[in-house]
Amino acid sequence: MPNKKTKESQLDLEQKIIELEKKLGSQQELNEEKTAIMKKTIAETEHLARHLQNTTLALIQERQVANAKAEKEKLVNQWVKKINASFDLDSLSKIIVEELAKFLSLDRCGILLFQGTNILEAIEYTNDDFKRISQSKNFNDINFLSLKEIKNSYLYQQCISEKNKVIDNVLKLTNDTLLDDVQSLMAFPITVFTGDTQVTKENISESKNVFGMIYFQHCASQKEWQETEIDIVSSIINPLAVSIEKSLLYSDSKKRTKYAELLNSLTTQIRSSLNLSEILARTVNELGIALQASRCFLYFDGYISDEYSKNCVPPIADKMQHLIFDKFINQGDLGSIAINDIYQDFKIGLLSDEEKKELEISKAAAALACPLHFQGILQGWIVFHDFEKRIWSQDEIAFVEAAAAQVMVAMTQSRMYEKLNSYQEKLSRELKQAARVQTALIGGDVFDVSLETSVFYKAHSNVSGDFYWVAELAPDVIGVLIGDVSGKGPAAALLTGYLLGEFNAAIANSALPWFPEKMISFLCQSILYQNASSDFYATAWYGVFDLHNKKLKYTNAGHLNPYLIKDGQVTELGTEDDCGVPLGLINPKELEEVYIAREIDFVKGDKMLLFTDGVLDQKMPDGNFVPKNWIYDRLQKIKDKDVKDITFDLNEILNSMSGSTPLSDDRLMISLEGVDFDFQEFTCGQVEDINKLIDTIVHDCIEHHLPKERQIEFKLGITEALSNAVRHGPLDHDVNKTIKIGYRIDNGHFKMSIIDSGPGFNWQVYNYASIDDVFEDSEGGRGVPLLLEIFDKVTWNYLGNHIGLFFYW
């Protein structure tokens, strides 16, 4: 029997077992709980793994899509850059069709562009296996197709009917040249834009906004077009359209610039001449080259110009002109006429066999005729021929029309120039004749007077408004007139002629020339009467030089004061108060003492310079006038020179200051120097001494080559003049009264002054008397007519007691 201790040990063991079982149960529950948690965790992990896998796959797919899109965008951007890199339409078209054909592995790719009735671009890239019959290179200009053929083609019609056209299986269309050998195609219309918005499908279908298409053709087999391919091509259509538009604008701009340059060049060429034949020759040559035409000629008012002919083609026959102008041009239309294909556009059936032959000889396949208008009237035509069919562009027609306007202006100017030239030649002849007449009128006795004189005179034009006259009132009394009419040209010249005519009439018929103030008043009254209906006036200075008494009397009518050189001093003669009023501005009869005579001593060696305002109003190269005091300053340096050197020197200095500047006005200078005119004095009772003087005078003249046949009449004239002075001069025949006689003999000239102390006589009564008017039985009255018959000129002073005799041989 187990003892108590054993029992206790067994109880303890059982107790421990129970406790162990409890612990084991608890552990088992814990393990089961852990297992459930683990299973749940594993399930969640597996779910998460599947989610991560799906996410990763989605990311990979998105990346692949993004990469594809980026690749596509990169590719599109590369093409867009290439498209935008060129403004040349031909280069742009070649780049795009080649790039797309190779990228899509196509057999053909082409672009067709239109503008109105013209094909702007028709180019196609083709691989070697599917070249068209006419192709010799990969790039082909398919202009062998007409615009009508292209627009009627199935390809074009299908392209513009929808936004784009994709056909996997193309039916054989025997009448469509563009679809030869094609099994699959894709085509897109190229449309214009309105603002920022692309035209609608409805607008596309109307074709008015479609200016071309791009097409892709697969010929080896049928092709299933991928969405990516369609998408890529679609992406570049709009940039391509924009680039093409820019190219067209650039091309148009270049053409306009080119034509503008050509027009400027042509205008310069044709306007560089006023010769009509030369203008026509330059016109046809320049226009023929500019348009690269085979032939160009011009028809103007019945005149047919020489031809411009490319490649030295022979000129067309005259009969061809009838064909061109009667058949092509004279249709009552004043606009340009463009014939792209004479044999198609022109009604050949209307021509006779001879005309057809002429047309064939002319080789003309295309023609352009531009009218020449002037003030709405058709004057002629500019005609171009081309030996091949040719589409004349609107730019070419606009250029020719603009050139025609310039040609018409040049030709009109040429005709006007010819008329003007003819008129100018006639006017020039008349002006030269007027200048010769005026030259004959101006001057007077300037080269024959006893006073030392020198004149420089240069007119601004053929005829002048400056005038001067040197008159021998007697051999010892010289009248000098200088003046300037307002204005220039023929009108002023006519007035100078009128004034000088009046002046000479006064010298011949009255005593006025001996009195400067009366002479100036007479001229003022005369010009005022003659000039009542116009605003011309004249300045004048008139002086009477008395060489015997060594005096100068002068009157100024608004003229420039002369310079006087006396005793080595240069002074201005007169002041502004002495200038008086120009001729023709007032009536001298209405005012007292309008013109006043001044008197100064003027002895041998004294010098005077008279001049007009052209000497002071001369411009220099810098645009300024010559210095106001230049004459005075120069006279200070040349005052000791003789009168000829003075005028020459002053003109040379003036030329030096003015340089190449043309004359601003007429230029007139007169320099004078006083001389002695000696007289011998006799009483009326010294008849023998007077006779001896007559013999001495005759002998001296014979020594100076007086012709023998004129010696008797010469002696008779002198004897008659002195006898009259002795018999009729003194009052009551006082033999103690004196007679003064002075004379000069020089170079075939004899001049004598006779001054008696008597009261004189009315010489005007006998001034025009003829020796034939004196009765044979008359005892007197022969004196004056005899003198007028023998001597070349006879003058008297206002009293008739100072006579001047002039005899020339």
What does this structure look like?
By secondary structure, the chain is α+β, with helices and mostly antiparallel strands. The chain folds into 5 domains: 7-85; 86-254, GAF domain (Beta-Lactamase), CATH 3.30.450.40; 273-386 and 407-418, 2-Layer Sandwich (Beta-Lactamase); 445-673, 4-Layer Sandwich (Phosphatase 2c, domain 1); 680-808, Histidine kinase-like ATPase, C-terminal domain (Heat Shock Protein 90), CATH 3.30.565.10. Helices cover 44% and strands 22% of the residues. It is built from 18 helices and 30 strands. The strands form 6 sheets. The chain has a 6-stranded antiparallel β-sheet, sandwiched between helices. Strands 9, 10, 11, 12, 13 and 14 form a 6-stranded antiparallel β-sheet that branches. It has a 6-stranded mixed β-sheet with strand order 15-17-18-19-20-23. Strand 21 (563-566) and strand 22 form a beta hairpin. Helix 1 (4-84) packs antiparallel against helix 2 (89-103), helix 11 (394-441) packs parallel to helix 12 and helix 12 (489-509) packs across helix 13 (516-530). The longest helix has 81 residues, at 4-84. The chain is elongated, with a radius of gyration of 58 Å. The protein starts with a helix and ends with a strand.
Attribute tags:
single chain; 809 residues; alpha+beta; Beta-Lactamase; 5 domains; six-stranded antiparallel sheet; 44% helix; elongated
Major beta sheet summary: 6 strands, antiparallel
Strand content: 15-25%
The CATH homologous superfamily of the largest domain is termed PPM-type phosphatase domain
What CATH architecture of the largest domain do you see? 4-Layer Sandwich
CATH class of the largest domain: Alpha Beta
Mean pLDDT: 79
Which term fits the overall shape? elongated
> What is the CATH fold-level name of the largest domain?
Phosphatase 2c, domain 1
Class from helix and strand fractions: alpha+beta
Approximate helicity band? 40-55%
**Cα end-to-end separation:** 216 Å
Can you count the beta strands?
30
